[in-house]
């Protein structure tokens, strides 16, 4: 397509800047940074010191720092080409990278130098950092994991490209109006992005529709519509600047952005229709797919970024290595969840139609190159598309999928699988409306399929991929998720980082598992008190921030109980809220008791079309309004819903948390990474035996975590024997009273029946086992109260969490991927 335009473009192999360094002394470095900032302000921002506003200084600071990053970027790319080794390609529909300035400064060791250079002009680096918008490139854990992985790949000196979409508005900006979520465009690119570089020469044509013809055995796809994908690159800096990798995001343009004849004839909308169709591909993350038009846009979006990425990978390989047959030796492609699954068919198309390999050759190359990470057991998240839609939009790919399916089903028949197993394995779901199963396509098209926690991986083998596991018994493996300690400990919690450094030295900075040296000191009373002081200082900072944000005064000496994550029924914010109502009732009924003051902090976004999730947000705000204005509870209980939860807010909230709520229905959370971030920062987990909670418990010890509720096996058994939630609710006085209060409008006097349907559903079905786990959860919360009142014991548990979660560093996770899946050093 446009591959010939991409001949010489990878990180532009320019030479390093020739500007000489002033001196290596501390003050000399500050002087040099100041000079570079002023130069950027004058010559690249176009302002002098008197006219410059804070956003001008922010841009100048980024541009000055970026020069060093670019030099390291060039050097990293040159080393990769010289070594002619293997490169990792990580395809993800989300990259929740957050703010980059502090990340880059920290990894390059330039924080103090930049801070002092700006102080000379009366500027506060921390305030300038706050001006950087969060990149709207993701929604939740999936996107943040991808960002952590990219940072760890660079920190471990592994050559890598991340591939995604440069969303103009991303998910959405959440505003809370009278307790309701309101979705607004996230305009993070309104004033440009100083971190990115457009690569106009890296452009590819992405086709849709049309027809497929054959001429003497040569297959030709003639798309009815073509859109140009253009690369926009962002450098990703590893620890100590060891390597700078590339996050390559695709933007879309029509080949004919305006039809002048139509425009001049007065058909202004029609004249711009092509560019509008292109813009929709990169406008919003996860367009609602509840309508036919929404489904089409979602599939177009996934194919757009997958095709551009695969074309770029193949072009680069041929350019630098020649023989396409050696692709598996030089490239490892990892599909982050099911969204990029169509990449399997696209790689097959390029190998067969453009490089003229046989189906068998192409299939061997594809499977040897691609790996697939599954992140969910929820059937609705294992994407499938109506067959007519898929065939109309991607006719050649549909042919290839049929060919792959025939090959796989013959293999299954030879292996002796029965008709039911073969039907489950098929890439085409024949039950009712025929649909293309994208998770099955990713599974059969990969040499490795990994889960992201031990429990999740085991359940994959037993449930959603049980029959595929029978056919390919060695393909599924586990890679428990991790988070980067650079972002989630060193940068977000400098007070705790400094204290740990004093206690055990610097070793943990480069190797998080060295945090284990703290374990021997967990009982040290003086250290425990200092950890408590750090936590309280972080809580003061958060309280001040939330007061500015919401107007609510919070007591930093209260227990900060936090549940911040995507709003979904399986994550069970509703369980937390119902228990909050029960606690509120108990506090009012028994004022004589010595209640532990508690602040309940909620945050998260609900998908715009997810009615129950949005209703849960409204319930949280209604409960907060009632409790926070009730003088009978005073400062004993406060509830706050933090609007527009994002990475930057997480960096403020997590270091201040005392209790981490990880209370999903057992068997439904693949892993979780918030649980790891909280533990790194000394919060105790209250949670079910789900996802990575199990592995956290194994490492921190059962005495240092609060576990409750049904196991995954018990959840399945309870459903199988006929679960009656009404009976469970009526047998629990506290639960029944809380449910009745919510259903009868105690918290919604303006609309008494607002939550009746939500509570009726709980009484009738309760798929997520809220009622089944309520009594155990309430008892666990009273156990938390008792632990909190034993201050020495709580401090010891907090230290034991910090000391024993270094294994959950994304460096460890990426090392396992590199060694066991990708075959890179």
From TrEMBL:
Keyword annotations of the record: Allosteric enzyme, Carbohydrate metabolism, Cytoplasm, Glycosyltransferase, Phosphoprotein, Pyridoxal phosphate, Transferase
Composition skew (Low complexity), residue ranges: 12-21
Location of N6-(pyridoxal phosphate)lysine modifications: 677
Region (Disordered): 1-28
Cofactor(s) listed in the protein's UniProt record: pyridoxal 5'-phosphate
GO BP terms, alphabetized: glycogen catabolic process
Pfam families reported in the protein's UniProt record: Phosphorylase
Cellular component, GO annotation: cytoplasm
Alphabetized GO MF terms: glycogen phosphorylase activity; pyridoxal phosphate binding
Major localization class: cytoplasm
Known role: Phosphorylase is an important allosteric enzyme in carbohydrate metabolism. Enzymes from different sources differ in their regulatory mechanisms and in their natural substrates. However, all known phosphorylases share catalytic and structural properties.
Family: Belongs to the glycogen phosphorylase family.
Protein name: Alpha-1,4 glucan phosphorylase
Originating organism: Erythrobacter neustonensis
């Amino acid at each position: 397509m446009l591959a010939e335009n991409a001949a010489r473009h990878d990180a532009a192999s320019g030479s390093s800047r020739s500007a000489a360094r002033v001196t290596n002394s501390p003050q000399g470095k500050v002087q040099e940074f100041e000079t570079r900032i002023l130069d950027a302000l004058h010559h690249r921002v176009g302002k002098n010191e008197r006219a410059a506003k804070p956003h001008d200084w922010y841009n100048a600071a980024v541009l000055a720092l970026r020069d060093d990053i670019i030099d390291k970027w060039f050097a990293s790319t040159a080393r990769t080409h010289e070594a002619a080794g293997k490169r990792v390609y990580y395809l993800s529909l989300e990259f929740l990278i957050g703010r980059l300035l502090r990340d880059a400064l920290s990894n390059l060791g330039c924080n103090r130098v930049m801070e002092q250079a700006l102080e000379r002009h009366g500027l506060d680096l921390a305030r300038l950092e706050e001006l950087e918008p969060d990149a709207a490139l993701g929604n939740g854990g999936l996107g943040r994991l991808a960002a952590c992985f990219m940072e760890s790949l660079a920190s471990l000196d592994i050559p890598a490209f991340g591939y995604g979409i440069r969303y103009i508005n991303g998910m959405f900006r959440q505003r809370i109006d009278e307790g309701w979520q309101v979705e607004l465009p996230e305009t993070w690119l309104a004033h440009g992005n100083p971190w990115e570089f457009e690569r106009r020469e890296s452009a590819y044509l992405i086709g849709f529709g049309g027809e497929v013809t054959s001429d003497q055995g040569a297959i030709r796809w003639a798309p009815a519509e073509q859109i140009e994908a253009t690369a926009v690159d962002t450098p990703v800096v590893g620890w100590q600047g060891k390597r700078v990798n590339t996050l390559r995001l695709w933007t879309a343009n029509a080949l004919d952005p305006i039809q002048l004849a139509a425009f001049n004839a007065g058909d202004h909308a029609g004249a711009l229709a092509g560019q509008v169709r292109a813009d929709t591909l990169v406008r919003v993350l996860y367009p609602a797919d509840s309508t036919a038009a929404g489904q089409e846009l979602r599939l177009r979006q996934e194919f757009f970024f997958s095709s551009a990425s695969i074309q770029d990978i193949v072009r680069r390989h041929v350019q630098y290595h020649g023989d396409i047959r050696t692709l598996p030796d030089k490239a490892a492609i990892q599909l982050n969840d099911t969204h990029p699954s169509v990449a399997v068919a696209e790689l097959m198309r390029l190998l067969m139609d453009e490089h003229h390999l046989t189906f068998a050759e192409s299939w061997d190359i594809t499977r040897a190159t691609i790996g697939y990470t599954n992140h969910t057991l929820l059937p609705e998240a294992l994407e499938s598309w109506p067959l007519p839609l898929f065939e109309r939009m991607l006719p050649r790919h549909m042919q290839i999928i049929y060919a792959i399916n025939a090959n796989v089903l013959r293999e299954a028949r030879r292996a002796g699988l029965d008709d039911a197993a073969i039907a489950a394995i098929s890439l085409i779901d024949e039950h009712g409306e025929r649909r293309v199963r994208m998770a099955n396509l990713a599974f059969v098209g990969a040499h490795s399929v990994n889960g992201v926690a031990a429990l999740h991986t085991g359940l994959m083998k037993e449930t959603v991929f049980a029959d595929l596991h029978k056919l390919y018994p060695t393909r599924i493996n586990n890679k428990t998720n991790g988070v980067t300690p650079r972002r989630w400990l060193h940068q977000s919690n400098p007070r705790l980082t400094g204290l740990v450094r004093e206690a055990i030295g610097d070793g943990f900075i480069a190797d998080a598992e060295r945090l284990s040296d703290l374990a021997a000191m967990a009982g040290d009373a003086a250290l425990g008190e200092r950890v408590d002081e750090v936590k309280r200082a972080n809580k003061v900072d958060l309280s001040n921030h939330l007061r500015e944000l919401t107007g609510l005064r919070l007591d930093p000496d209260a227990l900060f109980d936090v549940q911040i994550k995507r709003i979904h029924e399986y994550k069970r914010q509703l369980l937390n809220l119902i228990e909050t109502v029960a606690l509120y009732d108990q506090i009012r009924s028994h004022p004589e008791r010595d209640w532990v003051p508690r602040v309940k902090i909620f945050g998260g976004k609900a998908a715009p079309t997810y009615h129950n999730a949005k209703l849960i947000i409204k319930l949280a705000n209604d409960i907060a309004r009632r409790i926070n204005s009730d003088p009978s509870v005073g400062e004993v209980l406060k509830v706050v819903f933090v609007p527009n939860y994002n990475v930057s807010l997480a960096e403020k909230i997590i270091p201040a948390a005392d209790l981490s709520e990880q209370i999903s229905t057992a068997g439904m959370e693949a892993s979780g990474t918030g649980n790891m971030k909280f533990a790194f920062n000394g919060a105790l987990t209250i949670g079910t035996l789900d996802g990575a909670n199990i592995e956290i418990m194994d490492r921190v010890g059962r005495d240092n975590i609060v576990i409750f509720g049904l196991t995954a096996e018990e959840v399945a058994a309870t459903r199988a024997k006929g679960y009656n939630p009404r009976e469970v609710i009526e047998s629990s006085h506290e639960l029944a009273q809380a449910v009745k209060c919510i259903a009868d409008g105690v918290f919604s006097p303006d609309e008494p029946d607002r939550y009746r349907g939500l509570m009726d559903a709980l009484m009738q079905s309760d798929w997520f086992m809220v009622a089944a786990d309520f009594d155990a959860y309430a008892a666990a919360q009273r156990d938390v109260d008792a632990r909190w009142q034993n201050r020495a014991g709580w401090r010891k548990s907090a230290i034991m969490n910090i000391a024993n979660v270094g294994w959950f560093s994304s460096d460890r996770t990426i090392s396992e991927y590199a060694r066991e899946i990708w075959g890179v050093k």
